[in-house]
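Reviewer has doubts. Consider these C-alpha cells.
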Amino acid sequence: MTLPTILDVEASGFGRGSYPIEIGFVEAGGTVFCCLIQPEPDWLHWDASAEALHGITREILQRHGKPPLWVAEQINRRLAGQTVYCDAWAHDYPWLARLFDVCDLSPSFRLADLRSLLNEAEAARWGGVLDQVRAEQNLRRHRASSDAMVLQLALQRVKQDGS
C-alpha cells in the first residue's frame, strides 16, 4: 500500500473562536513538514488545557511562528492536487478553513477523514494499533508532525496486519 499524506493540526483550544497554531504533515514518501503559526490580532481564544497538552505557548507562537499567509502558501504548494487525510476532520477542517480564510486563499488539496481508508475489520483494530504505535514511538511531545507520523505508521500497520 502506498501511504497517503497525513496531516494534523494543533490549535488554541476547541470550539468557537479556536484557531490553528501548528500544522504538520507527513507525505507518502516520508517527507515531514511542521510549522508554528503566528496568531492574527483578532485570534484571541486560548485554552490553558490545550496548551498543557501540546506545550505551545502564545509567546512561542509570537517568537517562532510564521505568518498565516506564508503557512497557507507552503501547504498549498506542497499538497497541491492531493487528498490529504486526518483523524479529526470535524476539528481540523474548520481550523484549516480559518487559516485559509484569513489569507483569502482556497486549499489546493482535499482534506478527508482517515477512517474512510479503513474497512470494518481495520476500523475495529484501529484504536489498539494506534495506542501500540504511540507507545512504541515514545514521543515526549504532542505536536502536529509527530502526531501525523504516528497516524501514518498506525495506518501502515493496520493495513499490513489485515492482509
